[in-house]
């Protein structure tokens, strides 16, 4: 029986952890991020993987620092054969990399060497890519640079959000992991080195990344809205109020205004974008309010054609 230490935090990691728990492998520890304040009421909540692990009686470790001697001793005590990483959220130091007997594998949500880094799904959607995928790789000290053990591609639909792609890749990753983990532990799967010349990077998103730049073409804005869901959301401002754009479409409405200018606000919310293109807002969320369709929003808000959404709130 292969003993596994699993490193993972967000919902993306759940299918893989669930699959391992249901398999013949023995998950001897979960390493996940400490409880954080989130959700309605800003309550202190465990990660989704921690809740699942506790329900199965798995030893759960939540170090603030991966170099903490107490954490390293606890991980060494369970003596894992292999470590499995799925969106843990921190770079693993050498002290962790040397603990599992056979090393560690990582499920990375891109077709490496493309989109190394913390936000590969969001950056692929934002770039308008039609295809992404999941890569199983051996973990090395350098960021997402280890040998590729296996990969599988996944098509991105024209209206798919980052959340949609994350769900699909999480499931694909679980299947890929179980197909190849035993061969890795047995030493029969060494992988292929990555092409460093082809490497691209996907920096971690911050809240400010959600700002809509109305000078961009409509397709780029639509891609941006899809990429920023579920966090940090694509947002804009009008008369000092912040609005989140939840769903958009590229439309053929005549482009006659400046970027961000509202061209139509009677039943439809149509906004001028860059390069003489137009975006239709299909769902919107005013600050502090629920998400609503554009029609419902317009029924309760008196907007004037010619008003202009801005990237930043006026100071």
Describe this structure as you would to a colleague.
The chain has 315 residues and is of the alpha/beta class. The chain has 2 domains: 196 residues, Rossmann fold (3-Layer(aba) Sandwich); 94 residues, Formyl transferase, C-terminal domain (Methionyl-tRNA Fmet Formyltransferase, Chain A, domain 2, Roll). The chain contains 8 helices and 15 strands. Strands 5-2-1-6-7-8-9 form a 7-stranded mixed β-sheet, with helices on both faces. Strands 10, 11, 12, 13, 14 and 15 form a 6-stranded antiparallel β-sheet that branches. A hairpin with a 2-residue loop joins strand 10 and strand 11. Helix 1 runs parallel beside helix 6. The protein is elongated, with a radius of gyration of 22 Å.
Mind sketching the topology for me?
Blueprint: E1 3-8, H1 14-21, E2 26-31, E3 36-38, E4 43-45, H2 48-55, E5 60-61, H3 69-77, E6 82-86, H4 94-97, E7 104-108, H5 120-126, E8 131-138, E9 148-155, H6 162-186, H7 218-227, E10 234-238, E11 241-251, E12 262-264, E13 269-272, E14 278-286, E15 292-293, H8 294-300
Parallel strand pairs: 1-2, 1-6, 2-5, 6-7
Antiparallel strand pairs: 3-4, 7-8, 8-9, 10-11, 11-14, 12-13, 13-14, 14-15
């Amino acid at each position: 029986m292969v003993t596994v230490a699993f490193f993972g935090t967000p919902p993306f990691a759940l299918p893989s952890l669930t699959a391992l728990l249901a398999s013949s492998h023995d998950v001897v520890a979960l390493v996940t991020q400490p409880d954080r304040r989130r959700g309605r009421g800003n309550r202190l909540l465990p990660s989704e993987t921690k809740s699942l692990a506790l329900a199965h009686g798995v030893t759960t470790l939540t170090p603030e620092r991966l170099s903490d001697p107490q954490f390293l001793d606890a991980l060494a005590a369970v003596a894992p054969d292999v470590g499995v990483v799925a969106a843990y959220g921190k770079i693993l130091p050498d002290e962790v990399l040397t603990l599992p007997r056979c090393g560690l594998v990582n499920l990375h949500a891109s077709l490496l060497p493309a989109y190394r880094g913390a936000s590969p799904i969001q950056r692929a959607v934002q770039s308008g890519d039609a295809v992404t995928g999941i890569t199983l790789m051996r973990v090395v000290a350098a960021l997402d640079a280890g040998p590729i053990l296996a990969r599988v591609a996944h098509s991105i639909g024209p209206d798919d959000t980052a959340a949609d792609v994350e769900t699909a890749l999480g499931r694909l990753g679980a299947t890929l992991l179980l197909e190849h983990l035993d061969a890795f532990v047995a030493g029969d799967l060494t992988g292929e080195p990555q092409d460093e010349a082809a490497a691209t990077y996907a920096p971690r998103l911050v809240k400010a990344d959600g700002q809509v730049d109305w000078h961009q073409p409509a397709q780029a804005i639509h891609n941006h809205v899809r990429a920023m869901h579920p966090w940090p959301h694509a947002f804009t401002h009008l008369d000092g109020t912040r609005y989140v754009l939840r769903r958009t479409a590229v439309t053929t409405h005549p482009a006659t205004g400046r970027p961000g200018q509202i061209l139509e606000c009677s039943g439809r919310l149509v906004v001028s974008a860059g390069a003489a293109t137009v975006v239709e807002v299909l769902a919107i969320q005013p600050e502090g309010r629920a998400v609503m369709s554009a029609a419902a929003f317009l029924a309760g808000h008196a907007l004037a054609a010619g008003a202009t959404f801005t990237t930043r709130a006026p100071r």
